[in-house]
Specification:
Blueprint (H helix, E strand, L loop, with lengths): L2 E5 L4 H13 L4 E6 L10 E3 L5 H10 L4 E4 L5 H6 L1 H20 L5 E3 L2 E2 L23 H20 L2 E3 L1 E3 L1 E3 L12 H12 L1 E4 L7 E5 H13 L11 E2 L3 E3 L1 H9 L6 E4 L4 H6 L8 H7 L7 H17 L10
Parallel strand pairs: 1-2, 1-4, 2-3, 4-5, 5-7, 6-8, 8-12, 9-11, 10-14
Antiparallel strand pairs: 11-13
Bound molecules: 2-amino-3-ketobutyric acid.
């Protein structure tokens, strides 16, 4: 039996991760935490500001936590609007956890990196694990710095940190917040509600994406991997599906025939253009046998099925028109 803490459990990935870990360890203790209370009451939820090291320390001690999943971060588009705050939050929360792990307060940390660590001079197609990394976004710079720090803490203090570079994540339970890849979730809601969508990325902007079940699978798999098998100690490339807004719209149109899309690229276009189009994840396959399951069509089908149910049940928490 192990005790697990998720920091950022109300967020896009945190929500699905919490559900999966609770299902998996039905006898275990999976503590949820976030800076805001969850929508539904949860007896195993703790209100936590992870930038406050002493509060994190207390939670780790109180619940005798063994493993932490650190899912709280300011994403790329929001980080451009508040660079100092994004840097402070993204780095401070990571340092707090690295220091507390170094002190021996828990055994293993999951910290997500992102395709945002790559930049304009990185090869964009099948981006290799090791490549030129010159991110030019606040978020990308913080993720690259984080990658260097987790490797440093492993080498110097034997801290066990596991990490993957998430592509854009597509999910139906919770909306993403403040990322460049968010269009690939918004489009589904708009298609169902209005039959049309205005994309903030141009028609032919190809980005690496992944359906949430695959992202959760990768996250749990790398945490469970035998430490000796992990040859990479910064963060693993993981690949899913690469598509453009135009291709995603066409895939949605298979199920919603009248769906239309138009394009009004904004500041997020430049961010997207600095990122890879597709990712080479052979190292993740080799070291911990990971491979994604969902392709474009199976993802679209599953998204629409689940969102339709959610709309019908009248329980959609996020309103696109807000
Ligand atoms: C974002 O768009 O900022 C994130 C990411 C790719 O890390 N989804």
């Amino acid at each position: 039996m192990k005790n697990i803490l998720i920091i950022g459990s109300n967020g896009q990935i945190g929500t699905d991760l919490l559900a999966k870990l609770r299902q998996k360890f039905n006898n275990g203790q999976v503590i949820a935490s976030d800076i805001r209370n969850p929508k539904n009451p949860d007896p195993k939820f703790v209100l936590l500001d992870a930038t406050d090291r002493e509060s994190v320390r207390n939670v780790l001690k109180d619940y005798q936590i063994d493993e932490v999943y650190l899912m709280a971060a300011i994403l790329s588009a929001n980080a451009e609007k508040m660079p100092n705050k994004a840097w402070d939050i993204n780095m401070q929360v990571l340092f707090n956890l690295l220091e507390l792990a170094k002190e021996g307060l828990f055994k293993k940390l999951f910290w997500p990196s992102s395709i945002a660590v790559f930049g304009p001079h990185t090869p964009r197609i099948n981006t290799p694990q090791y490549a030129v990394m010159d991110p030019n976004t606040v978020y990308g710079i913080s993720k690259l710095a984080g990658e260097r720090w987790i490797e440093y803490y492993r080498e110097h203090f034997n801290v066990d940190v596991r990490s993957v570079r998430y592509p854009g994540i597509i999910s139906w339970k919770t909306m993403p917040g403040g990322g460049t890849t968010d269009y690939a979730v918004e489009i589904f809601h708009e298609a169902l509600k209005h039959g049309r969508y205005t994309s903030f990325l141009a028609a032919n902007t190809r980005l690496p994406m992944m359906y949430m079940p695959d992202a959760i699978d990768a996250t749990i798999k790398i945490m469970e991997a035998d430490q000796e098998r992990l040859s990479i100690h910064n963060s693993y490339n993981i690949a899913g599906i690469s598509f453009t807004p135009e291709e995603l719209a066409a895939a949605i149109r298979q199920y919603i025939p009248g769906f239309t899309i138009d394009y009004q690229p904004d500041f997020r276009q430049a961010i997207a253009e600095s990122w890879p189009e597709s990712i080479d994840d052979r190292m993740a396959f080799k070291d911990w046998h990971w491979h994604h399951k969902y392709d474009l069509d199976s993802m679209v089908k599953d998204m629409l099925k689940n969102l339709e149910k959610k709309y019908q049940a009248g329980s959609l928490l996020y309103q696109m028109d807000l």
